[in-house]
Structures are given as C-alpha cells and as structure tokens.
Amino acid sequence: MPDLNSSITAMLSEAREAPEVVARLLTSNAALCRDLGERLRQSPPPFAVTCARGSSDNAATFVKYLLEIHSGLVTASVGPSVTSVYEARPRMRDALFLAVSQSGRSPDILNLAQAGRDDGALTVALVNDTASPLASTCEVVLPLHAESEKSVAATKSFIAALAAGFQLVAHWSQDQELLAALDTLPDVLAKAAAIDWSAALPELSQANDLFVVGRGVGFAVAQEAALKLKETSGVHAEAMSAAELMHGPWTLAGDHFPILVLSQRDETLSGVNDLVTRLHEQGIPVVVAGAAEGPATVMLPSVEDVHPYLAPIAMIQSFYPLVNAIALARGRNPDNPPRLRKVTETV
Ligand SMILES: N[C@@H]1[C@@H](O)[C@H](O)[C@@H](COP(=O)(O)O)O[C@@H]1O
C-alpha cells in the first residue's frame, strides 16, 4: 500500500490540526451558542438564509441539511449576486442569516450580509478572521478558531465551519443526543485522521473525471471532496446526490470515470446501498467510504459507531490525506494550485 503520509505538505499538516481546532472551538463557542440558542428559542425564525462561497458554501450546505432535518427550518442558499449585482432586496426580516467564510472579505458576501442585517435578519458570521469586515457586519460572530491556514486548499477551517454549525444546531435544539455526539467530535476526528484511505489511490489518481456521491447530510462533504479534487489534483470531479446520479449523469461513468461514494448510517443508507450494487453490476469502478456495504471495487475503512451527523465530518477528515496524495501523484502541489490564491474576492 502507498504511504499517504510520506510527503507532508502544508495542506496535510493543517488537516491534521482539525481535531484540536474543533476541541478549541467547542469550548470557546459553547457559551455563545447557548446564548444564541436561547435567543432562537425565544424568537423562532421563519426560515434561514445561508451566504457563502466555495468550501464555506459546502459547509453551509451541511448546516442547511441539519436545520431542515433536525430543526424543521427551511433554509435557502441565496446567490450573493441577488443583492451585490442585481441590487435586489429579498425579504429576510426575522430570518436566521448564516454567513460562512474563512477570510470574511469577499465583497459579494459582505453585500448580502449587510442586506440581511439592514432588513432585520439575525445575522450570524461563522468566520475564521474575526477582525474581518464580515465579523463587523454581522450581529453575532461564531469564530472558527482555525488560526492561520497557509495552504490554498482549506481543510481545518472547513471542518471548523461544519463543527460550528453543528454546535449551533445542538445548543439551539438542546437535544441531548446531539450534545453528547458533539462532545465526541474531537476524538472522532482524531480517529478519522489516522484512518488509511490509500487503497483508493490507484483507482482515483488515474482518473481525469469522477463523481463524488453523497446523500442527505453527507451531500455537503461530497461537494467538498469534489472541490478539493478539482483544486488540488486537476481532476474534473463533480458532486452528485445518489438520487440525482440516477436521473441521467451515471451514463457518463465507466472504466476511466469512477465513482467515489461517501455514505453514512441513516435513512439514506438503503438507497445508497442499492446504488452501489447497481453501479458495480454495470462494471463501473466504485470506491465506497462510510456505512455502505458494497460490493465495490474498493471498500475504505471508517470510524465506527459514529453519529450519522458526525460521519460526514469524519469522512472528509479521512479524505484529506488521500486527496493530498492524489495531487502529488499527479505532479501537483496541493498548497499552490495554478491560478488560485488563498483569498478570492468577487463582487
Ligand atoms: N449555494 C449557491 C452556489 O451554489 C451558487 O454558486 C451561488 C451563486 O452566486 P452568484 O449568483 O452570486 O454567482 O449562490 C449560492 O451561494
């Protein structure tokens, strides 16, 4: 088996910091989340809005699923152009407005956040740079506590954003099971960081195209894995819901177009298992991570007995050493992808 830890890039060493970042975040933000949760219980918002780009938008999608499944709150990802380019003013009064960003500096994100605040939404920034304009634009700041991240590919800050959103939902609902699961997250991440996904390297490092499949709460990390494959490894990877895949796109997959499936043990599992079986029967190379059973070309190990809402966070942690190794195998430097900079500002 190839050793995924033989080349330590900034990306890999920052990814390894995620368990301690999350431990720090959970302690530091607990009182903030309790207060915010109390406020949300006193004045339940009619809906939620998310505002983010790139990896942060994928983290926002994770929070959207938690809010919709667990809190029953319809959550819309509003395109920043709606306010920043079209200068439209959609009604956001009393909504919970969640802006997610590492730098907190992109003008379009700031514009939408200001529009939310001006219209009377409860604006909350999940942001790493607490000295950023986004932190001053929003009423409440949940710092990501990821500290400095040098690699262009976000890792620990992405996991921190997932954890921050989870913590908010857990404290808001005061659900004891979720709160107990939250306490286990740093340990789960430490175990996930030590899990070896090198068995997937031969299959995935050869591909120029692939689908990353997730469903429900796992969809956001499928999006993030696909984005990381694009950015770091030059692979045209597309995230797809397990259901969406069947409505057409799976016709593209085949010998040189494998599918990576990220699955968790919840109500989505039987459908994902059916999908894996069908793909395998069709001779499509499938790499399976998480709870799904196969049969598959490659079955990857995962942290056992993990809460289904935490499983996606654990899987992206285990994925980072793999994608780092895929990038290196393809002759790329994951810390410095062509044309990319750490902070991207769009209007
Ligand atoms: N979650 C969505 C993204 O998937 C989409 O890319 C973006 C478009 O934003 P814009 O219209 O500003 O380009 O809106 C939201 O953030």
Automatic annotation (TrEMBL):
<dbReference type="InterPro" id="IPR001347">
    <property type="entry name" value="SIS_dom"/>
</dbReference>
<feature type="domain" description="SIS">
    <location>
        <begin position="200"/>
        <end position="337"/>
    </location>
</feature>
<dbReference type="InterPro" id="IPR046348">
    <property type="entry name" value="SIS_dom_sf"/>
</dbReference>
<keyword id="KW-0032">Aminotransferase</keyword>
<feature type="domain" description="SIS">
    <location>
        <begin position="36"/>
        <end position="184"/>
    </location>
</feature>
<dbReference type="InterPro" id="IPR035466">
    <property type="entry name" value="GlmS/AgaS_SIS"/>
</dbReference>
<dbReference type="InterPro" id="IPR035490">
    <property type="entry name" value="GlmS/FrlB_SIS"/>
</dbReference>
<dbReference type="GO" id="GO:0097367">
    <property type="term" value="F:carbohydrate derivative binding"/>
</dbReference>
<dbReference type="GO" id="GO:0008483">
    <property type="term" value="F:transaminase activity"/>
</dbReference>
<keyword id="KW-0677">Repeat</keyword>
<keyword id="KW-0808">Transferase</keyword>
<protein>
    <submittedName>
        <fullName>Iron dicitrate transport regulator FecR</fullName>
    </submittedName>
</protein>
<dbReference type="GO" id="GO:1901135">
    <property type="term" value="P:carbohydrate derivative metabolic process"/>
</dbReference>
<dbReference type="Pfam" id="PF01380">
    <property type="entry name" value="SIS"/>
</dbReference>
